Write the structure tokens for this entry.
Amino acid sequence: MVKETMGIIELLSKVHILSVITFLPLLAAAIIIFIPGKRHEIIKTVAAVFSGLSLLLGIIVYIFFDGGSTSLQFVEKFRWIPKFHIYYYVGVDGLSISMLLLTVVISFVSVFASWGIEDRVKAYFSLLMLLETAMLGVFIALDFFLFYVFWELMLLPMYFLIGIWGGPRREYAAIKFFLYTLAGSALMLLAMIALYYAGGKTFDLVKLANDFDFSKHAPIHLFGMTLPFAQTLFLALFIGFAIKIPMFPFHTWLPDAHVEAPTAISVILAGVLLKMGTYGIFRINYTIFPHATEYFAYAIAVFGVINIVYGALVAMAQEDFKKLIAYSSISHMGIVLLGMAALNPMGMNGALLEMFNHGTITAMLFLSVGVIYDRAHHRDLYRFGGLAKQMPVYAAWTAFAFFAAMGLPGLSGFISEALSYLGALKVFPALTVIGATGIIFTAGYLLWTIQRVFLGPLNEKYATLPDINTREIFTMALPGFFALVIGWYPQLVLGKVSTYMIHLIDIVTKGAHW
Amino acid sequence: MNLFSPYIDVLKIAPQLTLVVFILFFVIGELVFRRKIVFGWFSVAGYIIALIFLLIGHLYQNRVLFSYQIVEDKFSFFFTIFFLLAGIVISFFSFDSAEIKRDLGGEYFALIMAAILGMIYMAGAVNFLMLYLSLEMVSLSSYLLSGYTRDDKYSAEAALKYLVFGATASGIMIMGIAYLYGLTGTLNFSVIRDQLVSGIFPSFTLLTILFLIFAGFFFKMSLVPFHMWAPDVYEGAPTPVAAFLAVASKGAGFAIALRFLYTVMIQGSPLSGKLLSDIYHFIPVNNLDWPLFLGIISVLTMTVGNITALNQTSVKRLLAYSSIAHAGYMLMGFAAMNYIGFYAVLFYLVVYFLMNIGAFLFVQVVYNKIGTDSIVKYRGLGRRTPFAAVMMAIFLFSLAGIPPLGGFIGKFYLFAAVLKSKLYWLAVIGIANSVLSLYYYARIAKMMFLEDSHEKEKVPVSAAHIFLFVILGFPVVILGVYWSPVLEFVKIYSHLFLP
Amino acid sequence: MPYNGILIMAVILFIIGITGVMVRRNIFIMLMSIELILNAANLVFIAFARAFADPAGQVIALLSITLAAAEVGVGLGIFVAIRRTHNTVNVDEINLLKH
């Protein structure tokens, strides 16, 4: 049995499985360009088939990934631009494997969530597929340059997807998203090049993490200030990632982008893109700047708590259904920040699991907003009411998603939030207590929303609304499956990630090698 | 020196002579051929023949021609190819231009060719006499070209402004050259360099002279404070001419600035030796701090260019300010004073050539149909001309430096050069500018794709223009993914020969 | 050095020329001011050429005069076009292109 498994792993490595998963959607995009624009069904089918293939292969890789090992698996390394030491270097470890799974799941879901698109279908699906390639690339890249290219590659499709198919203020939202993210990645670019020269000319993230100690590097002189090298670069990278998370005070692009984006794009945005911020911090900041990480851990926790409480309070004040979910995302990403700052096994595992769970749960939340918006054509929470009678199945699914987001025991959100809070409690007791009030606020706004939308007397205008259809149920069921299963069997994810996450703590605190 | 050497040299400049022959032919060709397109094809043929002669002649070693007036080395070879290709592209560009009148073909292509001939000499000039002559040759042709549509008010005005600015700038430069001549007793680059290295000159005097000479260079490169002509000229001149000035003329400015600064104004002449390693750091002659000065000019130029571009209503004008900003980015490579900076400028010029001409090409395609380049008229072009609009989007985002497009790689090397020299302030301001620039590039993309107009009529793209879009657009994408060959090329050809 | 006077003269000419270009608004006068700048440079060249007994300075001065003539030729051509399209010789009134 063991031998067979080894054989399959070898086979998977030999066929460059990670590259195949990543570039299948790009191939789909290329195929879609050559399909006549009027053949909507064919275009959609191609997108579904290719992202389905990516999903299938992603699950296979996930199954055969050895969760007991801290080493990189399915590694591929080719010279790309040898004269500048740039490699095409990809691989997965415990950190990226969970995000890989999340990305293929959410992308697949978003293809079906986009089934209703009728305007410029060809452009939409080729951009969506390009976006999937870029997202997958970010999670498997082990060369900083490659990582950066994929990171930026996301921007263009995202800009057009929000800008062309979005809501009434889509142009503003799209350019705001673009500029914020670009500002962040601009800092990342400078930090990357500075690391290249400080670290003996390499973009190899593993080498940068293992072979160099940047805490003793000569300081940076900038505008008359003398700044310590490691801390400055840590911050430059951190701000780049924090904008993506989005961490308070860099969060203002998120509500706009979400409100204007079409449903499927909101799902991707909340489900995958936000995770890239925290993923980047884990992948790059934690491994390359261990000392600076410890130095800033408390600050990260503080911002995490601000995110939790601020996000929840602002969510409570929202009248727009989608904006409410957007702010709840900010709140939940705060939990990730708090957990990751704890630097103990519970907190780190909790943070990573929360990233995964939030990805699936928020996807459900946005899908459910999309369902009601498609029918009622508005999202004003005060203009609904009593929909549970009219759309019982829809109400049940939405309630399920809400309970998962609330962290109800038995659903996935509970496990990850509990782990994050418990981990943080050991290190930052006072902060965690403040942060934990977020749970109450969250429960508050979510329950209140259920009450406003589903309970009470039925608004007569909506007496004819059809219930959720099979396609929509299908899109919600896939992430819902994970929300339910992880609630009972968290080992599904933790089994693959926890060894690496505990090792990551050693990297940060004990100077262990990646 | 051999008395006959000048006559022998004549044979060695076959590419340039080819251009001369064609220019002369254009002058009388009007008598025979009446259609513009004929001259267009003739000029393309001329550039190709010159290119063939160049490639044959390239088999020879570095050499000095006409009693130390010009050299032929790897660097001049690179730029000669650059200018000849620009000539070919601009010829195709002009084929279907509504602005260039059909009955006035010969002069137009002759002037373009004369300007290119001047640029080729500029790239090889190692003597201030030759430098001044070739620079003026480019300038005079450019003045006429920008005023080419002579019945058009805007075009005439552009030509006037260009002339006044240009003549003043070159006047200031020749004054600087005169005093440098007084200081060193020669006009020859290599002798001047020997004098500067061995003699002690007051650095205040030297810097003053240097700034005077810079006036001429800055004008061609459209750097602050000699940038004011660019927006007016680009807006008023016919679109092919604007593209030509933005790319070829600016390239010539960079060629001469690179040659002058990196042969005369640095300690030693390392670029004439073997291939340098990436970490090679140049030292300015007599420790004159011209790199810092150029760094400050770079910051000013890119900031002025980007901020002014933000609220332009004419796309041509916007591209003019963007090209000013790009000159500022390229100047970062000078300030870095290392070998990466040197070849990064050449690499950037290659990418800039592709994406900037491409952007102007789109402006022309739209102008041919709707007769304006006003940004609000770009609404909904994504539906009216999908192929060209997608290409334009590629050019714009490449100009903004978004990976995986060529413009990003160009900027990457410039920033690498700056950070290699630990000029963090320059890098931070440069990157902030780069982010800022996205706003106005994305604004055009927004108009084309995100907004709709009631106009539904298709905008036609002629065959020549499709051809150009393809040969300009695909390299931009490919260079963003795999740029090794071009990088190796510019590294090999960043060799300055100093006799 | 006996050439000091000439050099100072050249600088004065240069400054007058620059000022003329910047201050005067008649195209003719501006072209003449540019000529002054060029002539200032020519003066310096010739002075140094004599001092060094080197022909290069005289050569560049001669060529510079030729170029100046060509420049004025082009300038006058443009002047005619401006005169026809704008009906003025005052650059302040030639302002269709924004500043």
Notes: Chain B touches chain C at residues 128-129, 132-133, 136, 140, 143-144, 147, 150-154, 156-161, 163-164, 167-168, 171-172, 174-175, 177-179, 181-182, 185-187, 228, 231-232, 235-236, 317 (CB under 8 Å).
